[in-house]
Write a structure and sequence with these properties.
By secondary structure, this protein is mainly alpha-helical. It contains 22 helices and no strands.
Length: 396
């Protein structure tokens, strides 16, 4: 008996293909995905790489999220997370209405502390807690920013819009993530913050990365680098520049542009040598560790899975590194290990992704797709394998 519903990525690709009256050979030719790879993906014998999903989405003229199945609405409903989305939308809608006479905001120092606490909670993987609190804080900070004047209130609001982006993107609500970023840009302009402006382009580029629109994403990375040049020299400025290069490295890797990907990685590594580990600068976790983690990601995106696994073996993630980023790394490593035939190691990495940040892992498309591909070979895996799939679709 299968632990996951049968509507996995391969099934969705096959259904979308048939709806368009395409044979597997025709879709393979249109998308550039090898025929043998496509057939194995549809049969759930291989996890679809992000590059393959992007190519197939373009060929069938659908969104990447349609193929990935995000958001996982039935599971979100079971975990009572879907009801938290509407308040976030409402909070984002009142951005330009001025101060709300029915809201008495706390002092900016207290709002800043509350905003920072939510940023830390996101990185700790506490998605449900953050989703339940961020809407109220956005409404309170919106009134405070309109009332206070100056840049501090707008910077706090920018940070909260970024948190809204973090939550909505992790849960698969792409439209809400994009709306959050539009609000972030709006608030950053009022704060006259070139640093936040550069960060905005980085986050926006990530939405195009997820959508498989690599050319637009790279243009946004380039725009972010130009924007951040307007900021005064500072450690924050360098961190954002370095993070933009890391984003650019994955963007280029997923587009299979190896030279550009390595170039971005090298520049990020150079910057990290001067900034050191900077996990709390805009909560971007920039530093040598993040460069090494991104090197694993880039190698996997370039389909060099053996090298990705080898690079991960040389990597030691600090115990105090953000759990959300660590969990994502384990999910990416699980995919690379699965593609190299290391099934037991792949499942072990999925277990680590779950242990590190369970709420995030449960809704991570890489976790679900890698598990679905391993499911066909579960007789070669521990008895706990099927229980993992039950957890993915269980009520929290």
């Amino acid at each position: 008996m299968h632990a996951l519903p049968q509507d996995h990525t391969g099934v969705r690709i096959a259904r979308l293909r048939r709806e368009r009256h395409l044979t597997q050979k025709a879709l393979a030719e249109l998308s550039g995905v090898p025929y043998n790879t496509l057939t194995k993906i549809e049969q759930n014998r291989l996890a679809a790489t992000p590059h393959a999903v992007a190519c197939l989405a373009r060929a069938m003229r659908v969104e990447v999220s349609t193929i990935n199945g995000q958001p996982y609405t039935s599971d979100l409903r079971a975990d009572a997370l879907d009801v938290l989305i509407a308040p976030m939308r409402e909070a984002l809608d009142v951005y330009d209405l001025g101060a709300d006479p029915d809201i008495s905001p706390r002092p900016l120092t207290e709002l800043h502390e509350a905003s920072e606490a939510l940023c830390a909670a996101v990185r700790a993987g506490e998605i449900k807690r953050v989703a339940s609190e961020v809407a109220g804080l956005i409404e309170e900070a919106t009134t405070a920013a309109h009332s206070a004047g100056g840049s501090e209130g707008w910077l706090i609001l920018s940070a909260l819009y970024r948190t809204s982006y973090d939550v909505s993107s992790k849960l698969g609500y792409t439209d809400l993530a994009q709306l959050s970023l539009a609000r972030l840009e709006w608030a950053a302009q009022r704060a006259s913050s070139a640093v936040f402006g550069g960060a905005y382009h980085y986050f926006r580029a990530l939405t195009y990365l997820r959508d498989g629109k690599f050319r637009t994403g790279q243009r946004l990375i380039d725009m972010g680098l130009r924007t951040i040049e307007q900021a005064e020299p500072s450690r924050e400025r360098d961190v954002v520049i370095g993070q933009l290069h890391l984003g650019g490295s994955v963007m280029a890797g997923r587009a299979h542009n190896e030279e550009q990907a390595i170039g971005h990685l090298s520049e990020a590594e150079r910057i990290a040598s001067s900034t050191g580990e900077s996990p709390q600068v805009l909560w971007m976790a920039f530093g040598a560790t993040n460069v090494s983690v991104h090197r694993v990601s880039v190698l996997a995106e370039l389909d060099k899975y053996d090298k990705a696994v080898d690079a991960a073996a040389e990597l030691t993630i600090p115990a105090d590194w953000p759990k959300s980023r660590t969990s994502h790394h384990w999910a990416e490593l699980a995919r690379a290990q699965m593609w190299t035939g290391k099934l037991e190691a792949s499942f072990a990495s999925l277990l680590k992704a779950r242990k590190t940040a369970p709420q995030q892992a449960k809704y991570h498309p890489l976790v679900r797709d890698t598990y679905a591909s391993l499911e066909a070979a579960h007789r070669r895996l521990p008895d706990s394998f099927l229980s993992y799939g039950s957890w993915l679709t269980s009520q929290a």
